Amino acid sequence: MSAGTVAVVATEEIGVPSWDLYELSIPCTVFGKPQPDLADPWYELWLCGSGEGGTTASGFSLRTPHTLDDLARADTVVVPSVPDACVEEGAPLPSALVEALRRAHAAGARMVSLCTGAFALAEAGLLDGRRATAHWMHTGQLATRYPAVEVDDSVLYVDEGDVLTSAGLTAGLDLCLHLVRRDLGAHIANQLARRMVVPAHRPGGQAQFIDQSVPAADDAGLAPVLEWARARLEEPLTVRDLAHRAAVSPRTFYRRLQAATGTTPVQWLLAQRLQRARELLESTDLPVERVAARSGLGTANNLRHHFLNHLGVSPAAYRRAFPGGPPAQAGAAGREESVASRNASRPRTVPIT
């Protein structure tokens, strides 16, 4: 049994312009290349099209081994993009694709869009009443055309449980790694990210684009400071501590970090501590009190508060959601069961920093 079947929509009806080749390659790279030393078996990747073959907008031949009918048999369906004409000019989406997406969702598939793929999910009605995103250049059209969708143009990706959407280009890679983290745990996702030479995790709530009012040369010293802070998350770090390490004033450090990450120092530290707590919950059987201390969140109550605010679940419920990890301590699980049950109906979200 594999980690799951991932069906990627790649059809000549949609076309694959050169700009979108990157987004098509992301799920193929993440889910299509076996990683036997990380998880064996790995995912099974299907490229799905109309089955007719043809020449794409980029001028190369496209023939897929699977058809749109196979989407309904997949565990996860990924739509990397739609034609520019469907976004900019309001051209209709291929009806066969829209119907295939509806059938896949009805069959229980997890539905994922990268960039303008959100227009296909929205056309199929799968985003109605849900929060969703796309590339910030296209979120205005998405919101206007599909008013039932709660469009958020300020985030990298949105996880609504069984339906997930991402912004464009590299944000699609963030979302695919997030899926690996959900399915196989933090350790495997982090190792895969390292092989791909990308950040192990960017919270979905991070801003899509960066204010470049600060010259790039001024940011050269931030990376070692942030790495230094990540190694000391359990300590009571302050903005003054980080600024001192960077040899700048607190005001200057605040501006530089916000320009580079889209977040404030306090928000950045909270996001890193939440991420550390998630990794500990996924990969260890430490009690919640120790997880809170080692992640720098202080007390178990503080950890629960931030988990409920940012992820919508308790630490114990979060730990149970990741297969293959150590079981939570029975006492901690019992104490948090009532909290988890109250939040069971809430969709999973990623931290907004």
TrEMBL record:
Keywords: DNA-binding, Transcription, Transcription regulation. The keyword Lipid biosynthesis does not apply. It comes from the Bacteria. Transmembrane segments: none annotated. CDD domains: GATase1_AraC_1. Residues 322-353 are annotated as: Disordered. Residues 340-353 have a biased composition (Polar residues). Residues 223-321 form the HTH araC/xylS-type domain. Pfam families: DJ-1_PfpI, HTH_18. Residues 322-333 have a biased composition (Low complexity). PANTHER family: ARAC-FAMILY TRANSCRIPTIONAL REGULATOR, HTH-TYPE TRANSCRIPTIONAL REGULATOR RV1931C. This is Helix-turn-helix domain-containing protein. It comes from Streptomyces albiaxialis.
